[in-house]
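Notes to self after the Tuesday call (sharing in case useful).
The group wants a holo model before anyone commits to mutagenesis around the pocket. I volunteered. Ligand is magnesium ion. Logging inputs and output together so the record is complete.
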Amino acid sequence: MSIFLSLFRVIKFSFQNFFRNFWLSFITMTIFVLTLFTINAVIFMNVLAEAALESIEQKVEVSVYFEPDTSEDLVKSVQGYLMGLTQVRTVEFISEEDALQSFQERHKDNPVILSSLDEVDGNPFGHALVISAHSANDFPFILEALDTPEYEPFIKQKDYQDYETIIARINALAFRVRVGGFILAAFFSLIAVMIIFNTIRVAIYVYRDEIGIMKLVGANDWFVRGPFLVEALMYSLFATLVVVAFAFFGLDALGPWLATYFGDTDMSVINYFKDNALLIFGSQFLALSTLSILTTMFAMRRYLRV
Amino acid sequence: MSMIRLKNVTKFFKPDTTALKDVSLHIKPGEFVSIVGQSGSGKTTLAKLLFAEEGPTQGRVVIGDWDITNIRQHEIPVLRRQIGVVFQDYKLLSQKTVFENIAFALEVAGEKSSHISTVVPQVLKIVGLSNKRDRYPNQLSGGEKQRVSIARSLVHRPKIIVADEPTGNLDTIHAREIVELLKKINDFGTTVVLVTHDRDIVNALKKRVITIQHGKLVSDIEHGKYVLP
Ligand SMILES: Nc1ncnc2c1ncn2[C@@H]1O[C@H](COP(=O)(O)OP(=O)(O)O)[C@@H](O)[C@H]1O
Ligand SMILES: [Mg+2]
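Result:
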């Protein structure tokens, strides 16, 4: 008995199943496609939100101003200390002279402000550090790290630009997309499970004569069960292929539209899908086929008396 | 040496039916045995025990030297290829031709296509349907359908054929043809168990007759006749 021959026959039976219940197969596949589509839309939004966040986060900096009489050594040691933190990307040292110069530069058209400088003795500015982090979420930690008894007395002001609210808003939006997407994806997955369960139940019913005869003439057990499992696998595979096709045409079509809203980020989203296609769609296929095979096995246990 | 052996077999169905009560019997290889009895007496139940469609509630069932009393699920296909089964309703697939119906039994057992294309014409020849191999079941008479079903039961060269009322849907002439066919198969050496309640058939056969009444074996006569009303 040849394994390949038997496998071939099992696949042949599954194709017969597929076309014999064409509309049921069609609806099952449609639901599978919708499920995958939802999941990919969620991934897409997520990647988009993350790309937007990242591009903003890279622009975010925190300036730490020291008291005017703080020594350069101490500020340098704070710089070294900050560089040691994994969350910190760069720390730029700005000397009091540079601070004064850039202040004068910024307000060169405003004599009132400039003249106020003359009213104080010498340079009113202290040294400063400009910190950028890998993620905006790290700033609270970084700022807290400066609240030590050694450094705290010398720090005059920590200036966290109002990117904070933008980031918070994007974060909140991304969170909502994630939660909403998760609920939607779970909802569709549940429907997919119910649909495949029903499809297999109907297929077992439609094939009850064949199955009865198969058993009477001594069919191998997996000749009886195999076609249903292959059928479930087929729905998963076809649905994945349909979604892959849509994703690639769709993303290319979306490109120009994204560019107008997000600038460069559109490429990163599309590239994300392209670079990780095997991972993204492969794991979706695996998840979907696992789900449908488990459901099919469950349906067979209920309706296929062997 | 026996081909079929039932030892004190009792079969109980929930909630309250005892279909077989303490039935013991031996059937030797190559025998032709008719099982007779009124409707509801337990004939089909006895037949089902032989191909493990049902298991006994008490007692033992042995086929050849294989005790199938507690047969495992995965061993049932092996048993079924040693026992051909034939039913009153033929159990043919309407969307398959005669040839395909018979080939199906070999396909699902994983037999090679080359084997299938030699065996199917052989069994078609035995049942005399070589010229109708491409017909569909609804293009055949009842007797022809039953011959297809018998041909299918032969594809694994079984040691035993169990036929449960194979003539139940046929007129006298076709019924006789089917019995003649079973006799022919028996002449090749296959053990045949024929379940029937057709008095004329049993009397014409002049073979061993086992009579069941209310689930009990009430007579077992060599060259017997149908004795019950
Ligand atoms: N699966 C079953 N569940 C419950 N009762 C059954 C079942 N199969 C048969 N019976 C009962 O067992 C008795 C014998 O049935 P059966 O063996 O089919 O008789 P026969 O074939 O002689 O007409 C009948 O009373 C029938 O109703
Ligand atoms: Mg019966």
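Two things stood out.
The domain at 4-90+159-221 of chain B is CATH 3.40.50.300 (Rossmann fold).
The radius of gyration of chain B is 17 Å.
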